[in-house]
């Protein structure tokens, strides 16, 4: 029997373990999560040294059946705004930048191979946000989140 992996942070759901393990294999090791930050050790490809990175968590857009993805808006230590997302291939492929999909065909083939082997697949992607774009989004997001309307989830999407 294989020895259980030890994780430096509490995982709220058993499905997150594969992401943590894969991230570690790709030289990203999570070591701290608070209500407002996430931190990890990252291998700098230029120097070959591990460096610590912390990201301020600005918004979390939880997974739901209509969005079919989980997204987080974070701010880097240098102020850059990033939107990493993970979700169903049908939803994520539809949101890819159309001119930047050099690997889309090959990735779709891999996803189909995994699905044919009855393995669950998720797509990970991110994009950088402009500050004005984030400000507008955040105003709408806050308004929708504070709404008591039945359409709150639709507004957030």
TrEMBL record:
| GO terms for cellular component | plasma membrane
GO biological process: what's one of them? phospholipid translocation
What sections of the sequence does the record tag as coiled-coil?
Answer: none
Taxonomic superkingdom: Eukaryota
Database matches in Gene3D superfamilies: Calcium-transporting ATPase, cytoplasmic domain N (3.40.1110.10)
Pfam families in UniProt = Cation_ATPase
Entry GO MF terms: ATPase-coupled intramembrane lipid transporter activity; nucleotide binding
Protein name (record): Uncharacterized protein
Q: What is the lineage of its organism?
A: Eukaryota, Viridiplantae, Streptophyta, Embryophyta, Tracheophyta
């Amino acid at each position: 029997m294989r020895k259980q992996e030890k994780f430096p942070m509490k995982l709220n759901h058993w499905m997150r373990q594969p992401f943590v393990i894969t991230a570690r294999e790709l030289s990203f090791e999570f070591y701290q999560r608070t209500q407002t930050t996430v931190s990890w050790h990252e291998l700098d490809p230029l120097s070959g040294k591990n460096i610590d990175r912390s990201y301020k968590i600005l918004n979390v857009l939880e997974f739901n059946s209509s969005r079919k993805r989980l997204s987080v808006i974070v701010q880097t230590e240098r102020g850059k705004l990033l939107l990493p997302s993970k979700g169903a291939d049908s939803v994520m492929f539809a949101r890819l930048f159309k001119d930047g999909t050099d690997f889309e065909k090959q990735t779709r083939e891999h996803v189909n191979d995994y699905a044919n082997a009855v393995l669950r697949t998720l797509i990970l992607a991110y994009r950088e946000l402009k500050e004005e774009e984030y400000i507008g989004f955040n105003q709408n997001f806050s308004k929708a989140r504070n709404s008591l309307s039945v359409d709150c989830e639709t507004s957030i999407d």
